[in-house]
Amino acid sequence: MNETASVVVVGAGPAGICAAKALVAAGLRPVVIDEGLRAGGQIYRRPLVDDGRSATDLYGSEAAKATRLHREFDALLPSIDYRPQTLVWNIADNQLHLTANGVHQRIGFQNLILTTGATDRVLPFPGWTLPGVYTLGAAQTALKAQGCTIGKRVVFLGSGPLLYLVAWQYVKAGGDVAAVLDTAPFAAKLNLLSAIRFDPRLVLTGMSYAARLVRRGVKLHYNVRPTGVDGSQHVEGLNFKSGAKTHSIACDAVAYGFALRAETQLADLAGCPFRFDDRDRTWLPATDDAGRTSCKGIYLAGDGSGIAGADAAEISGELAALAVIQDSGMAADPRRMSVLAGARRRKAKLRDILEKAFPFPQNWFDQIPGATTLCRCEEITVSSVIDTVHGNDLRELNRLKALSRAGMGRCQGRMCSAAMAEILASTQKLKLPEIGRLRAQAPIKPLPLSLHEAGS
Amino acid sequence: MATHHSRPQFQRHFRRDDAHIPFTIDGTAYSGRRGDTVLVAIMSVTGQLRRSEFTSEPRAGFCLIGACQDCFVTLACGTRVRACTTPLEAHMAFTTRESGNE
Ligand code: FES
């Protein structure tokens, strides 16, 4: 016998927590499913055990928010059905397929709020699979959740607000930051000035990280493209170009990334229609202002519906919950909804400006040698993907996946789909929306080998 | 090969004095700390987690949040665990001599 819940929230980051809170306030008892061990999501992730650090040590300028969300969620526990360490790996026929502790289970739902979050957006470069190269998010998680730095002497590389933030967090924790290498030109940062009116605190705190790093003697370079990593068993150094100049830095770790990419697999499996988003350079599930999809009973919130950050996730989480309440024929405060929708639009404008300040490196592949690994699961090179495109005159991403095997591995394209799309589009001189998108496949993450049906 | 005896990749800054949790890699005894994930425990004493399936390159995880699936390690009993999302338990015995891919 499968149970059916009136509302299920998938994810317990800022969006999921705020959704659950609004649902409980309306008298509902949502099931909240969380892949993590403790609620908070990636951004407000809590260490497995208390390690003596304060909220300010862990979350810096966002400590008050983190503490509030953790406290609010803990207070909700008696009023919700919380299921930590549980993976939703498929959605079919209004049922979620879950596993927890190797046990397989299904839950039916009338309403579903997906707050599936995001992962780092990465691009390949020579040496990116070597031990010591991690994503920016990984570098931050190692420190925040485990109190470790990813190496003794770390280079930070890429584009996005996280670049300077994590570099500063490493310096503060006593790590040795060898350099911060921004792939964007310095002039791009001037865009931040026009973002101040949308969120002065965020912008000024963000800008202060670069200033503080410089004061601590950390070298910043702009317009960077990495040319290779030294070392055969682990990172021993990083070579890069900054404009016309070539440099090399001794280091034993590299943290890099280019902002985030939305985790949209569950929305895809649920059958939600997608739209192409120019700013995020990817396909996203289409929603209205409140997070409604065109699938009845399915709502989206947080970065999984488009990258907008943690504050926006709180707003969109509450909005989606109010939409559920309204669509269920209960009273939802329309004024609150329009205030939230307005706030969400302002966050979206802020995000547009941040994207200009921390732009995606569009010409990345101009300097990437063909022998570079593109798909780290199946170990497929850039040149073999390009050869497959040419050899079959491919113009569609899923065909490229099928014929090249790139994107077919265990990560299901999470680490290579952005690169595959950029390569296919540029090789065939097509626009990104013209080459389609990789379809999600269940299970969206590898399942433990021995699965038992609950109750059997 | 015994490449896992190479230098530690991760550096601990907190929980250094927390309770030690014993584990082994290919029979060699190490200790992690209470509150470690498997990934942090192993990468704090060695330089890699595993070798890649096709080219046998060393790998050490990548995303640390359960997305890239780069960090699977094998227990002596044959079970594979995702190192970055699995809490370390006392007496876990890891083997780097994989029998097969799955
Ligand atoms: S390091 Fe990416 S899944 Fe574990």
From TrEMBL, chain A:
Q: Which residues does the UniProt record annotate as the domain BFD-like [2Fe-2S]-binding?
A: 374-425
Q: Does the keyword Iron-sulfur apply?
A: no
Domain FAD/NAD(P)-binding, by residue range, is 6-313
Any one GO MF term held by the record is: oxidoreductase activity
Task: Enumerate the UniProt keywords alphabetically.
Answer: Oxidoreductase
Mind telling me what this protein is named? Answer: FAD/NAD(P)-binding oxidoreductase
Q: Which organism is it from?
A: Phyllobacterium myrsinacearum
Automatic annotation (TrEMBL), chain B:
Identify the Pfam families for this entry: Fer2_4
**Source superkingdom:** Bacteria
User: What InterPro entries would the database entry show?
Assistant: 2Fe-2S-bd_N, 2Fe-2S_ferredoxin-like_sf
Keywords of the record, alphabetical order, are: Oxidoreductase
Gene Ontology molecular function terms on file = iron-sulfur cluster binding; oxidoreductase activity
SUPFAM superfamilies linked to this entry: 2Fe-2S ferredoxin-like
Q: Which Gene3D superfamilies match?
A: 2Fe-2S iron-sulphur cluster binding domain, sarcosine oxidase, alpha subunit, N-terminal domain (3.10.20.440)
* Oxidoreductase is among the record's keywords: yes
Name assigned to this protein: Ferredoxin
